[in-house]
TrEMBL record:
It comes from Knoellia aerolata DSM 18566. InterPro entries: Acyl_CoA_acyltransferase, GNAT_dom. This is N-acetyltransferase domain-containing protein. GO terms for molecular function: acyltransferase activity, transferring groups other than amino-acyl groups. Residues 9-166 form the N-acetyltransferase domain. The lineage of its organism: Bacteria, Bacillati, Actinomycetota, Actinomycetes, Micrococcales.
Length: 326
């Protein structure tokens, strides 16, 4: 293996037949060998997304995938209401035996070049401290730290929150509070009522009925919808899921589709009271009713131009549903 050189690899766009060797490599490289949901999760993200199938690139050696890079398609609306096509830099892995050959950089820049020619507007992501320097060297820029807000259920819950500074579990805790969001958001009347309160300013996700149904549909994530009035969805609702973080259970508020601050804050308090979660967490952009700022704790949003210029840092209006999970 030590004799393999970068020029021995084939770099090209991924094809369906690559799954046979790509999936085992991804599982092994990313520590997903024992995850029973992993392949279905990838299919949901990259094949069922209403914004489009994810473009991906592979590095092959002797016909076997040894490197993989994919970008999740996304759509934003600008402050003026124009559609901005985007992709999010997401799943990537290199077979450990082939590290040191520049596969991550090669696949990423190949994808950037081809997506630019295809007319995709921008790429965005929230890389961790380990991967961020590599992205910055490839033309990414730090846009802004996304502002996190929290609401503890009470003083004891605040202690649990502050002592659980570890990554959150990927898969959700089950709860019967509210309605199954994946089912409820296929109801046209429910979606029509809630979308009356979709954000109308800033750079925000293009929330369509298809998007809301897809975003909440993956079963192991147990997304729930809590409505202000079960008989009248137009009075607003929140989408949330419970996830364990250390010894605490947090309620991730991924959407607040509410008519006013009071309704949003009341619904978040209801989520905490009815689920028993220690605290609620979300992003304080757009409507973030009831969430108190948590200074210097949010993920760092990075962007890169493709065929368009990224929005101004101050214009972003993202929710937790736009950045958690992917």
């Amino acid at each position: 293996m030590s004799t393999v050189q970068a020029q021995d690899l084939v770099i090209r766009a991924a094809e369906p037949g690559d799954d046979a060797t790509a999936l085992p490599m991804l599982r092994a490289s990313l520590g997903k060998v024992d995850d029973p949901h992993y392949e279905a999760f990838l299919h949901w993200k990259h094949r069922e997304n209403p914004f489009g199938v994810s473009p991906a690139w592979v590095a092959l050696h002797d016909g076997v995938v040894v490197g993989y890079r994919t970008f999740l398609r996304w759509e934003f609306l600008t402050g003026e209401g124009r559609l901005l096509r985007a992709v999010r830099a997401v799943d990537t892995a290199t077979d450990p035996a082939y590290r040191g050959l520049g596969i991550f950089r090669t696949l990423t820049l190949q994808g950037v070049a081809e997506m630019t020619l295809a007319g995709d507007g921008i790429v965005f992501n929230t890389p961790n401290d380990q991967s961020r320097p590599g992205y910055l060297k490839m033309g990414w820029s730090a846009a802004r730290q996304l502002p996190v807000g929290v609401m503890p259920r009470g003083p004891r819950s605040l202690v649990s929150m502050l002592s659980s500074r570890v990554p959150a579990a990927l898969w959700s805790e089950a709860t019967e509070v509210g309605d199954d969001a994946g089912k409820a958001l296929t109801d046209g009347d429910v979606v029509e009522g809630l979308l009356r309160h979709a954000p109308t300013s800033g750079v925000r996700t293009h929330r369509t009925p298809g998007y809301l149904a897809w975003r909440t549909s993956f079963g192991p994530l147990h997304y729930r919808l809590l409505l202000a009035d079960e008989e009248d969805p137009s009075r607003g609702g929140v989408v949330f899921r419970l996830r364990r973080r250390g010894d605490a259970v947090e309620a991730a508020i991924v959407e607040q589709l509410v008519p006013d601050v009071r309704t949003g804050a009341t619904l978040v308090r209801r989520v905490l009271g009815e689920t028993g979660a220690d605290y609620a967490i979300g992003l304080r952009t757009g409507r973030s009713a009831g969430l108190v700022p948590l200074p210097r704790q949010g993920p760092l949003l990075t962007t890169r131009p493709l065929a368009a210029s990224p929005p101004s840092p101050r214009d972003w209006a993202l929710t937790l549903g736009d950045v958690e999970l992917f």
